[in-house]
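SECTION: protein entry
WANTED: fold as tokens:
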Amino acid sequence: MRQILKDILASKKIFIILFIGFVLTTLPFLIALSTQSYYDEHFYHSKNGYFKNYYSVTLTNFKQLDLLEVQKIADANFDHASVITGDITTTVPEIGQVQIVGLLNHKHWSPPLIEGTNIDSNESNEIIVGRLISNHVGALTLMNKQYTIKGIAGKDLGDELINVYNYKMYVYLNELPDSIKQDIMKQKVLQLIVRSNQNPETEINHFINEITQNNVEVQAEIVNENEN
């Protein structure tokens, strides 16, 4: 009987050791899956859209940067791609940190909306903002410029604050706040993100060729960001 009890006790110890080893082995994998699921939900497979191809395009050495011209050239040359700026982080005294995204075309993407409508014109002061910038459509003065809020961006998550749209502001490139535009023009650098479900390299090259026709000194760096 004692031997049987010893064997059972030994078996339990072996089981516990194997179980702990299994948990320690699978836990990092489960955490990785959970993290991937979070980012998929908030950045890719949610309503803000998923794209197969991501490219960054950095334009430098502008002698004179005409944002309206760049916006029109992008709108005319990208038939399949969505073109935006990267997040431009700035601090607004009444709000805090705001991430501004400049839109160059609206043919294939716009942020999801809780309320209101998308931007209608690429030459107006219409914007879309997250609900912690404003919780209603209508007029808003932001960084000494008056805008018309067309829509509130985000997913209807109730009081959950983990929402990538809360402090976002989407506006056409030429309608960026004046201080942001001045910073871009002073630096003479424009960083863009091109996203498409088709290979956008041909459209990117056409866009750059047209930009450099009027700005021969401009240099462009194209990076395939898919792996990033």
Observations:
- Residues 2-44 form the longest helix (43 residues).
- The two ends are 62 Å apart (CA to CA).
- The chain is about 35% helix and 30% strand.
